[in-house]
Amino acid sequence: MKGLRITMRGVVVQWTPRPLPTDAPDHGGIAFVDRDGVLNVGSPNYINAPNELVLLPGVASSIGSLRRAGYKICIVTNQSPIMRGLWDVERIHQIHDAMRDMLLDVDADAHFDAVLVCPHRHRDRCQCRKPMPGMIRLGEQMFRHTPPEEGRSIIEIDAGQKVHWWDEKIQPSHELDAMIGDRNSDMGAGWAQGLRCFKVNWNLGITSVVDRVLDQKDRGDPFDPMR
């Protein structure tokens, strides 16, 4: 990825970085976190408005624990209702603003530094919809190389390095980076960037794996993208 290009196509971004909590180690790891079924109760009809958000038990303390352990938090979520015309980009920002407030009301350290949203449908064949790793690659660049201006934007990404799904898992850009999700598409995106991958049960969410993520010796769940 050569640089960040702002356009009306691409990934919908909220970039709100904050310093880590006092005494947190600054190891540079990023926790990439799926949204529905990991942070909040999912729905087959999508989460269409802030008042439909229901956090899963223990989510705020889990995010706070990751931040206190030195992790930056980057939500990466597929949200095709935008391209389906069910609602617009402003609606997704409203939903995530509400989620931020809900988390911080419970745990003052439960801040997410970035939200990256793929607005596309599967048939759009974009580079950002998981299991493609485009959002993770963008997050790595934002946190480590080229941060955008704070706030909201839409950032176009290029194809980047080709993913060899049939090959061995590559080395990550940081050994502590992790992908936390409830679907194989989440695991595939993390696998494609060499991340530690942790799959959760959709009705338990991130709380069920946070201790494992915090264990730096835990290399995550095995995943075969060809199965």
**Gap from first CA to last CA:** 28 Å
Share of helix among residues? 10-25%
H/I helix tally = 5
> Which fold name corresponds to the CATH topology?
Rossmann fold
In the residues, how many domains can be counted? 1
What integer value in Å does the Rg equal? 16 Å
Strand content: 15-25%
CATH class equals Alpha Beta
**Principal-axis shape:** globular
Task: List strands and helices in order, with pairings.
Layout: E1 5-15, E2 30-33, H1 59-68, E3 72-78, H2 89-106, E4 114-118, H3 134-144, E5 151-156, E6 178-181, H4 184-192, E7 196-199, H5 210-214
Parallel strand pairs: 2-3, 2-6, 3-4, 6-7
Antiparallel strand pairs: 1-4, 1-5
Helix pairs in contact: 1-2
Q: What brief labels describe this structure?
A:
227 residues; alpha/beta; Rossmann fold; 7-stranded mixed sheet; 5 helices; 23% helix; 18% strand; globular; disordered N terminus
Overview of this structure, please?
Helix 1 packs across helix 2 (89-106). The model is unreliable at 1-8 (pLDDT under 50). The chain contains five helices and seven strands. Helices cover 23% and strands 18% of the residues. The protein is an alpha/beta fold and 227 residues long. It has one domain (5-162, 170-214): HAD superfamily/HAD-like (Rossmann fold, 3-Layer(aba) Sandwich). A seven-stranded mixed beta sheet has the order 5-1-4-3-2-6-7, sandwiched between helices. Helix 1 links the parallel strand 2 and strand 3.
